[in-house]
Amino acid sequence: xxxxxxxxxxxxxxxxxxxxxxxxxxxxxxxxxxxxxxxxxxxxxxxxxxxxxxxxxxxxxxxxxxxxxxxxxxxxxxxxxxxxxxxxxxxxxxxxxxxxxxxxxxxxxxxxxxxxxxxxxxxxxxxxxxxxxxxxxxxxxxxxxxxxxxxxxxxxxxxxxxxxxxxxxxxxxxxxxxxxxxxxxxxxxxxxxxxxxxxxxxxxxxxxxxxxxxxxxxxxxxxxxxxxxxxxxxxxxxxxxxxxxxxxxxxxxxxxxxxxxxxxxxxxxxxxx
Length: 273
Ligand code: C2E
Ligand code: MG
Ligand code: MG
Prior knowledge:
Elements: H1 13-34, E1 38-46, E2 52-63, E3 67-69, H2 71-81, H3 83-104, E4 112-116, H4 126-135, E5 144-149, H5 157-169, E6 174-179, H6 185-191, E7 196-199, H7 210-226, E8 230-234, H8 239-247, E9 252-254, E10 262-263, H9 264-271
Parallel strand pairs: 2-4, 4-5, 5-6, 6-7, 7-8, 8-9
Antiparallel strand pairs: 1-2, 1-10, 2-3
Helix pairs in contact: 2-3, 3-4, 4-5
One magnesium ion binds next to loops.
C-alpha cells in the first residue's frame, strides 16, 4: 500500500506498528482540535537586512502522551484521509483571530501565510469559504497570505485557476510554496498569476550540485521579478547563503539563519508586532 513500484509487501511488525500508529493519530485528531493540542508556530520572514516583514504559520501537535509531533508525521496521513481540510481551516481561523487581536491592540500587521493543501481545490466555492472564515474577524485580506503547492496543479486546473483569481481579486496575496520541488513549475507560472514565489530549500542543499543550484536560483529570481512576483527563499541556514541572496536582490528569507519557527506569543514579543 502506498508504494506503486512494488507489487509485494511483507507484513511484519514494523508495518503493523505504523498502521496502528496512523490509526491512533486519526482517532486523536478531533480531540486535538477540541483541546487545543494543535499549536501555531510562526516562522519569520526577513529582508536581507534582517528586518521582519512577514511570517508563515506552521502547525505543531502537542500530543498528551506522545509529546511534540512535527507536521511531517501527521500531515501526510491527514492528506490521505481528508482531515487536512479541517486542519487548514483551523489554522486559517486561528491566524485571522491572532491578526484581529493585534489589530485591536493597535499593532502594525505583517502578512502571515497559511498553507492550503491541494485537497481543498476540489471545492468550487473555496474562495468564498476562505473569505467567510476571515471576514468573521474583520481582518484586512492583505495580511492573510495563502500558500499553495505546485502539486495542486495536477488536479482540477479550472478550479485552481478560478479560485486563485477570486482570492486575488478579493485582496488575498497568493504564494506558490516549494517552487522547483515539483514537476511543472514553469508551466504553472505561465498559467497562474500569483504574488509570491517561495523557492524550495532543496536548491540550497547538497555539496556536489550546490553551484548548479545557485545558478538556477539566480535565474529563477530574475524570472520572478520580470513576472512581478515577490521572492521568498526557504531553508536558509548560513551567512554565505544570505550574502548570495542579497546579491540576487531576493526579497525575503525564511530560514534557521534568522530564526526557527516559534509560538505566537514569543513571536509577538520578539518582533514587537
Ligand atoms: P513548508 O510549508 O514548505 O514549510 C517550511 C518548512 O521548512 C517548515 O517545516 C520549516 O520549519 C522548515 N524550515 C524553514 N527554514 C528552515 C531551515 O533553515 N532549515 C531547516 N532544516 N528547515 C527549515 P515544518 O514546520 O516541519 O513543516 C513541514 C511541512 O509541513 C510544511 O512545509 C508544510 O508542507 C506542512 N505543514 C505545516 N503546517 C501545515 C498546515 O497548517 N497545513 C498544511 N496543509 N501543511 C502544513
Ligand atoms: Mg508552506
Ligand atoms: Mg515551503
